[in-house]
Write a structure and sequence with these properties.
The chain is mainly alpha-helical. About 80% of the residues lie in helices and about 5% in strands. The chain is globular, with a radius of gyration of 22 Å.
């Protein structure tokens, strides 16, 4: 029943309304989710936090927002996105409001756990929006929804002005008010998805809670998680790491490095919508091949360390200097970010095609793995710097991840080509 309802085209503008209000809500949620990227600096100064304490503070919302995605996704499948989305925003708004009154480091960590709920809204939105669109349009719809990632740039651009004018507590209060108001708007502007409406009409009961997790036993789901670990997790990690990298390697000042980092984030978020359109037109699998192929070349180039070579020629030694200059670095990095944005949309195009009745659980797990990438990779980048002494070691790690993803995907495609596949698999492979 669920798959049939999802495939049926809508006769009114309900899908457009659902997509628009969900995308707006996700933008506000993402802005709140990344609030510590700005106020965390002032909190570190006020409390005299160590680098480790600071890292834990700004990483806690990212971590919790990733971990809760699978549960929120399942709840969305069972109770509907209108209810779960609104409740998630209200809970995150309360936590953000209470953050303004936290005085100790422990209190701030506890508040950060609640703030992280805002990041879990992604799984809710994916499960909710996908039910309004037929299979042939889900890639475009989910790509547009994913543009809400631009909320991170909203915080980077606006929060510093509020912080300077009134303090970090003022930022928390205003962001909490905006999220609470958004929850109010969402509840009254949205409607239940087609599956929930049909359940109420026919009095049908949702699947048992544990049955919602049944598809997670499929290795394919975890393979999608690896794809998203790179396309989304590595994107978030680079957005956080780029300013530090540019300062350390090229000597940029913090303002210039920060603006370049923000400029990297915005297009890479917006082009996610284009990735959804491409996934509908040429197939998500084709988009993933392009994503991994170009990303492998880009990360290989960026992983090459600055070096001096001496070649013993016929007329004597000849010296050569190799270096990826700042202009070349930015060009290659932006190409990498562009294809990552396409890959983010393509991964989620697969999910409703393969698992139409478990979008919440599968989408939640994949989103959780991707979010954990944004938490784990910056830590790994720092550790690699310490171990190797090479700034480019972060791109060496990304090169290994993308090559592993490409090889696993290609082997899986070849195996499925040899086997007799069902219709959803055929559709997603187009």
């Amino acid at each position: 029943m669920t798959a049939t309802l999802q495939a049926a085209p809508s006769q009114d503008n309900a899908p457009v309304r659902a997509l628009a209000i969900s995308t707006l809500a996700f933008t506000v949620c993402f802005a709140v989710w990344t609030i510590f990227s700005i106020i965390g600096v002032r909190i570190k100064q006020e409390l005299g936090l160590s680098e480790t304490q600071f890292g834990l503070l700004i990483g806690t919302p990212i971590l919790t927002g990733s971990l809760v995605r699978i549960v929120l996704g399942v709840w969305t499948d069972r109770f509907g996105g209108r209810l779960v989305y609104t409740a998630t925003m209200l809970a995150a708004a309360i936590a953000t409001f209470l953050l303004a009154f936290a005085q100790t480091y422990t209190q701030m960590l506890i508040a950060a756990l609640g703030v992280g709920l805002a990041g879990g809204s992604f799984a809710v939105g994916v499960a909710y929006v996908s039910r309004f669109f037929p299979a042939g349009k889900q890639g475009t719809a989910l790509g547009i929804f994913g543009v809400g990632n631009v909320g991170a740039a909203v915080t980077k651009f606006l929060a510093p002005f509020v912080l300077l004018a009134g303090g970090w507590q003022e930022v928390a209060l205003i962001w909490a008010a905006c999220l609470g108001f958004m929850a109010f708007i969402f509840w009254f502007a949205s409607e239940d998805d087609p599956v929930i409406r049909q359940r109420r009409i026919h009095g049908a009961e949702p699947k048992s809670f544990w049955n919602e997790f049944a598809p997670l036993r499929n290795v394919q789901v975890w393979r999608f998680g690896l794809y998203y670990f790179f396309s989304f997790g590595a994107f978030v990690a680079l957005a956080l790491w780029l300013p530090r990298y540019l300062i350390g390697v090229y000597g940029f000042d913090i303002v210039t490095a920060g603006m370049i980092g923000a400029a990297y984030s915005i297009p890479a978020s917006i082009f996610r919508a284009y990735g959804g359109v491409l996934s509908d037109r040429i197939g998500a699998r084709t988009v993933m091949y392009w994503t991994f192929g170009v990303s492998a070349i880009a990360t290989l180039i960026l992983s090459l360390p600055t070096a001096d070579y001496v070649v013993h020629g016929i007329s004597g030694p000849m010296s050569f200097h190799f270096e990826v200059g700042p202009v070349a670095f930015m060009v290659v990095a932006f190409v990498l970010g562009f294809f990552m944005s396409l890959g983010k949309a393509a991964v989620y195009k697969h999910i409703p095609a393969y698992y139409p009745e478990n979008v919440g659980a599968v989408g939640g797990l994949v989103g959780m793995i991707g979010g954990l990438g944004g938490f784990i990779l910056p830590i790994a980048f720092g550790a690699l710097n310490d171990l190797t002494g090479l700034w480019s070691s972060c791109f060496m790690l990304l090169f290994a991840i993308v090559v592993a993803s490409l090889v696993w995907m290609h082997l899986s495609v070849r195996r499925m080509s040899r086997d007799s596949v069902d219709e959803p698999l055929t559709f997603a492979a187009q």
